[in-house]
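Sat 14:20. Reprocessing the chain from the morning session after the first attempt stalled halfway. Input below, unchanged.
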Amino acid sequence: MHIDIRGDGPPLVMIHGWAMHCGLFGALLDRLAAQRTLYLVDLPGHGRSRDDDSPLDLESCVAAIVAQTPPAPWLGWSLGGLFALHAALTRPTQATALLMLCSTPRFVHAPDWPQGMDVEIFRRFEAGLQDNLHATVERFLALETLGCEHAKAGLRALRTEVFAHGDPTSTALADGLRLLEESDLRAALPTLQVPSLWIGARRDRLVDPHAVAAAAALAPQSRHLQLDSGHAPFLTHADALGEAILGFLGEPSASDLSPLPLGEADAPTARRVRERTIRSTCISAYSRFSPSSALRAPSPGGGRKKPSV
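Finished this time. Tokens:
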């Protein structure tokens, strides 16, 4: 498994999403590398790990990453969040803090998880991989930028970078979809021993921001914020996202965003989450929601129109 190392300072492990690689974090890497040593993981079958045919499952991948990285906070975007969360749950001395970026412990809709995606979306992607891998990945890129303020520019940026190291392998893509469809780590969240930051995106059309907030409410020592962006906030809000990450990690340059002590929230479902408002032109922390409605599960279907694939 290829892990690129860049930057200077305390370590931070970063893991990309489905069909991607860590080069896609783009400008966010420049922002973080000024104060952190970044360990940028390309999962098996992706990016510069394209020739790694190791199985794409949570335990074996986390074990391989741990073998190549020092104890550090772990950040996972989308699918990458499942690996980061698994590491924090099973190896808290190695994954010393958790940052979940547009990611949740369960991605698929269920009666007790109405914010999840329709499983049919994943099955359409699975079928698409059999017909045209390249076109299926590009269709997914379009969904990632759907709702983004500058969707066309974001889509161009993703298309330029995503195949920079060759196509991800069909096996890895199928395994990734299986993880997204079948994983459910919600039951373990109350046992999480490390501090966590859960970052949702108001315009996200893949991972409902209500699901991110609901997941944060299940974890002790959790913080939650919401960006006014789409599913890939590092494309459009790199500076604000970088400040929020560094603030959570306690960097002096972002002391104004340092974590708040935990307290009881007004919403019954958010007892372990304190909502904070970050004043920034790039961040909208529940500007359109009351504290109670922000963390309340929406009506079945997530209260939003599901994207068609």
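The chain is about 35% helix and 15% strand.
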